[in-house]
Write a structure and sequence with these properties.
The chain is built from 13 helices and no strands. It is mainly α. Helix 5 packs parallel to helix 7.
Length: 289
């Protein structure tokens, strides 16, 4: 760094004003001066910089993390192997956490991905309800009721007159438990069917990396143990899901994981949209009837 400092200092001292303002907002003026004006990459300010960069990366990737899952549902017209309960619990947890974090005034980089993922989760829930129903009209009606319920819930949570901060704090405690518990139904469905159906491997692995990064950013930026413990527990269960994806990679009940990563997929058995039981629990198990 000492060799590069004479060349870098003229650049860092002449950044456009919007970038300077953004740096002050993200890093605080003192850390901005240390890291960019003095090029002193040591101490707590460096940890803060890493945390902010990770937070921005998480928010960026969260805008697309569930897109592969949405595309798999649309292309297959099936919700095979997808647990609606899992997505319902996760979406509810994210909506509570989003409103709680916003009302607490936490920096957006510490929770911004929750809004983007919650929207994508709502889309997935709608598709699972539509493709998971044997009666098309009933599926659309149920999906419409779900969207209306989500809108009403968000309105109630953000209204101080309906849900005060004390109650919201209790809801956040429950949301942490709910977010962790949301992984359990999907883990159970994977084990029961001996495969992961149309569950997106890309989404699972990206979620695993994101949850690990979010633990670091929470430790650096948010002094709230409830949120931290939720991310830690979520990471543990995401690791279980990732392990299942690997274990069931070439199961007949698994849909084209290889194709997601550029490998030649094998033919698989696609079942009902809600997932029927299989005779065995291993990756070579096949569906009944």
């Amino acid at each position: 760094m000492d060799l590069l400092r004479p060349y870098l200092l003229p650049l860092t001292h002449n950044l456009p004003h919007p970038l300077v303002s953004l740096g002050h907002t993200l890093l605080t003026p003192s850390c901005y001066n240390q890291l960019l004006l003095q090029l002193d990459l040591h101490g707590p300010c460096l940890s803060l910089l890493i945390s902010k960069l990770l937070g921005l990366a998480i928010i960026t990737f969260s805008s697309i993390v569930k897109i592969p899952q949405i595309l798999k549902l649309l292309s297959s017209h099936s919700a095979s192997g997808i647990s609606f309960l899992s997505y319902l619990l996760e979406t509810s947890s994210y909506l509570v956490t989003l409103v709680y974090s916003a009302r607490q005034g936490f920096p957006f980089t510490a929770y911004g991905e929750t809004a983007l993922i919650a929207v994508q989760n709502c889309v997935i829930c709608v598709l699972v309800l539509v493709f998971g129903s044997s009666e098309g009209g009933k599926g659309y009606a149920t999906a419409s009721a779900f969207v209306a319920g989500v809108a009403a819930g968000v309105w109630a949570l953000q209204d101080e007159g309906v849900v005060d901060m004390k109650m919201l704090g209790w809801l956040q405690a429950g949301a942490g438990v709910m977010g962790v518990a949301s992984k359990v139904p999907q883990i159970w469905v994977n084990w029961r069917e001996g495969g992961t159906g149309v569950l997106s491997a890309f989404t699972v692995f990206t979620y695993l990396a994101g949850s690990l990064s979010r633990i670091f950013t929470t430790l650096q930026e948010v002094d709230d143990k409830m949120i931290l413990y939720g991310f830690v527990a979520g990471f543990a269960l995401n690791a279980v899901l990732a392990a299942q994806v690997v274990y069931y990679w070439r199961s007949p009940a698994t849909a084209k994981h290889a194709e997601e990563f550029g490998e030649k997929p094998k033919e698989i058995a696609m079942g009902s949209s809600t997932g029927a039981s299989t005779k065995g629990k291993g990756p070579s198990s096949r569906r009944r009837g």
